[in-house]
Amino acid sequence: MSLITEQPIWNFEQENPDPRNDETSYNLRAYFDRMDDAKLLQYQPEWSDEQVVEWCGDFTDDGGLLIACSEREVDVHEFRRVLHQCIEYRNRVRPALLGG
Question: What is the pTM of this model?
Answer without folding.
Answer: 0.87
